[in-house]
Specification:
Rossmann fold, 5-stranded parallel beta sheet
């Protein structure tokens, strides 16, 4: 028979192990305020290159079975998006905000430090409202200028969820692209599926 003190020691160790496993594996509960899912961004959010009902926000809405606000404006830079953040996002009772911004800054030669300072301000303001932020990262081969790494750093610094290289496998594929920059309806469906995978645990 196992001595009493060994039995008690075994029980204590078992309880400690269970507590440790629970704390290591159980996800932190996410408490979100607000009511709406908002897609905030540029032409990739607006849906340039496809009918409006085939944009990624429209397809995402179909996938999750609830309304999604499309707050995309073609040509928007991070600076212009910051100016309309209050009206188009913060005043709309955001619960989850999906962001595609930075592509026009990159195209226009905006210093990445300026672009990501704007993005940091955008992300932190949305998070301060109690909403979850999901970022669609951008990766452009031979023309990236360090943006890919900055998206990773932004997500790490803020705790936002990053969907890296949101256009990965689309660019250069004529079956999925309307032009060299914008997806077609099939391409936007792939974008929506990638965002859906990120958003699903929080619905």
């Amino acid at each position: 028979m196992m001595p009493r003190f060994l039995f008690l020691t075994f029980i204590v160790l078992l309880l400690c192990l269970l507590v440790c496993l629970n704390s290591c594996t159980a996800p932190e509960p996410v408490s979100l305020s607000g009511e709406n899912i908002i897609c905030f961004g540029d032409s990739l959010t607006f849906g340039t290159g496809a009918p409006h009902d085939k944009s990624y926000p429209a397809r995402l809405s179909e996938m999750i079975g609830q309304p999604v606000i499309n707050a995309g404006i073609p040509g928007d830079t991070t600076a212009r998006a910051l100016l309309r953040l209050e009206q188009d996002v913060l005043s709309q009772s955001p619960r989850i905000v999906l962001i595609t911004l930075g592509g026009n800054d990159l195209k226009n030669g905006v210093d990445k430090n300026i672009a990501f300072k704007n993005l940091l301000e955008i992300v932190e303001a949305i998070q301060a409202s109690g909403a979850l932020v999901i970022i669609g990262g951008i990766k452009l081969l031979f023309w990236d200028r360090g943006y890919e790494e900055e998206f990773e750093k932004l997500a790490n610094d803020t705790g936002a969820i990053l969907v890296p290289d949101i256009l990965g496998g689309l660019m250069g594929n004529e079956k999925l692209m309307y032009d060299t920059i914008h997806p077609n309806a099939a391409g936007y469906e792939i974008m929506a599926k990638r965002f859906f995978k990120a958003i699903e645990p929080y619905l």
